[in-house]
Amino acid sequence: MGGLEGVLSGFQVAFSVEGIIFVFIGVLAGTFIGMLPGLGPISAIAVMIPISYGFDPTIALVMMAGVYYGAVFGGSTSSILLNAPGISGTVATAFDGHPLAKQGKAGKALAIAAISSFIGGTVGIVLLMLFAPMLASVAIAFGPPEYFALMLVALTAIASLSEGSLVKAFISGVIGFMFATVGIDAQTGTPRFTFGMTNLLSGIEFLVIALGLFALAEICFLIINSFKEKNDIHQNIGSLKLTKSDLKEMKGPATRQSFLGFIIGVLPGAGATIASFIGYIVEKKLSKRPEQFGKGSIKGLTAPETANNAATSGAFVPLLSLGIPGSGTTAVLLGALLVLGVQPGPLLFEDEPTLFWGVIASMYIGNVFLLILNLPLIPYISKLLLIPRPLLISLVITFCMLGVYAISFNTFDIYLLLIFGVIGFLMRLARFPAPPFILSFILGGMMEQSLRQSLTISEGGLGIFLESPIAMALFIVALLSIVIPAFKKKTIT
User: Fold this and answer.
1) CB burial class (10 A; 0-12, 13-18, 19+) of residue 268?
2) Cα(212)–Cα(258) distance, rounded to whole angstroms?
3) Where is the DUF112 domain (predicted)?
4) Which of 48, 117, 205, 332 has the fewest CB atoms within 10 Å, measured from its CB?
5) How far apart are CA 382 and CA 234, in angstroms?
6) Cα gap 325→311, rounded to integer Å
7) Residues of the chain predicted below pLDDT 50
8) What CA–CA distance (Å, rounded) separates 219 from 106?
């Protein structure tokens, strides 16, 4: 079957009655799962694997893919309204989304997030359709040295995520990296920093740290400032209408991050979380008013929301073309494919063109459904802010604890959640930024693994990092990302 015939057969599947129904079920379930702190698409897809057993593989994967990008689309809601990221890919959304909600612009923030998500997702799908087979070879070009350099760039960009002291930003990042090393060393099998506690052998879940540093820390401040800010955040939802100036501000970040997010999503092991952080960092560096980021910047909200949705489309390139999962969610999707009797890889494009193009074509419909679902619901979703403060605080704490417990069914993680809530609260009091902590924790494990793999390949020689032009270019970018912010701050002082 030729390329054009494959595309047409894919659209035929996507626009069939069965295809439309299962796309709708997937994106609807994904949206609501993404809104709830702690319930991510991984759990939902894992549950759907036995349910979809016996389905046509194309229809089953269409539904599961809908859950994936639907959860990323809907995950921004709790990040914006409650500062409690629904999934890891929407942590960066909270940086400017929640300040906008606190300014009485929750409706506008949700509308910006919905439109940005739609743009990023749609552009990502177009790029996926045009370049999927070709980009598979690009993804192969990234080996351990290139990944180490890429992670180093992201870590050294910590300065862009901080306001105030550069030293405090790097201290926060180092602490995050330290927590990433907790657990059994994957290479040697040696327990590290577990202090004899078996509960720490598997490491610390990302969600425990994210909800602690953001959601519970925010709850502590809500309780303390309950009298000062009684009528500030909950009674002013604001209008959903976006002005021409708002749309103008969104245009640049939405365009750039659609492409950048997709490219990052193509890289195996990257995914929506890293794409959202890098998108945020890039836009802050490009902005003429970087001081507005973290205080309710429209660009700061548009960038991560566009990038993470574009990355979800890009993540299907290594999954379908190479059989390599780009994230935890696509790893579960890979397992689902194998259970359904489909072998992803270079031959999938030729052997199963209907499945390959059917999944991609269904994403067009899914993104339209998501926009139609989310925009009309914004006035109702925003009313979460009208809930009385004591009840809201109780609900957020309950959802956080339930979400954390649902991952491991271990009460120890709930204690860890409370500990990180206190850490997050103290960090805010001492003005230590939380974003560098989170970014370092996310990238720490992957960076260490890439470094070890590189040194194993070169038998301990550092020359492997100098032999790759891609790695060398990324090292230069990493160096500049440290020197330039430090020089600027020194010049200003």
Assistant:
1) buried
2) 30
3) 20-439
4) 205
5) 10
6) 13
7) 1-2, 229-234, 492-493
8) 18
Q: What is the pTM of this model?
A: 0.72
Q: Rounded to an integer, what distance in angstroms lies between the CA atom of residue 65 and that of residue 477? A: 34
pLDDT for the residue 386:
67
What pLDDT does 28 receive?
A: 87
pLDDT of residue 219: 80
Place of tokens 């902590």: 437
Residues pairing with 192 in the sheet: 183
Angle between helices 17-35 and 3-14 (to 10 degrees): 70
What does the alpha-carbon distance between residue 72 and residue 330 come to, in Å, rounded to a whole number?
13
SS (H, E, C) the chain: CCHHHHHHHHHHHHCCHHHHHHHHHHHHHHHHHHHCCCCCHHHHHHHHHHHCCCCCHHHHHHHHHHHHHHHHHHCHHHHHHHCCCCCHHHCCHHHHHHHHHHCCCHHHHHHHHHHHHHHHHHHHHHHHHHHHHHHHHHHHCCCHHHHHHHHHHHHHHHHHHCCCCHHHHHHHHHHHHHHHCCEECCCCCCEECCCCCHHHCCCCCHHHHHHHHHHHHHHHHHHHCCCCCCCCCCCCCCCCCCCHHHHHHHHHHHHHHHHHHHHHHHCCCCCHHHHHHHHHHHHHHHCCCHHHCCCCCHHHHHHHHHHHHHHHHHCHHHHHHHCCCCCHHHHHHHHHHHHCCCCCCCCHHHHCHHHHHHHHHHHHHHHHHHHHHHHHHHHHHHHHHHCCHHHHHHHHHHHHHHHHHHHHCCHHHHHHHHHHHHHHHHHHHCCCCHHHHHHHHHHHHHHHHHHHHHHHHCCCCCCHHHHCHHHHHHHHHHHHHHHHHHHHHHHHC
Contact 184, 201 (CB under 8 A): yes
Q: Helix 411-429 and helix 389-408: axis angle, to 10°?
A: 130
> Which residues fall within 8 angstroms of residue 399, CB to CB, at 6 or more apart?
36, 37, 38, 84
What's the pLDDT at 73?
A: 76
Sign of CA dihedral 87, 295, 313, 316: negative
CB atoms within 10 A of CB 137: 11
Q: What is the pLDDT of residue 208?
A: 86
Q: What is the pLDDT of residues 418-475, one digit of tens each?
A: 999 999 899 988 888 887 887 788 778 878 888 888 988 888 888 888 888 888 888 8
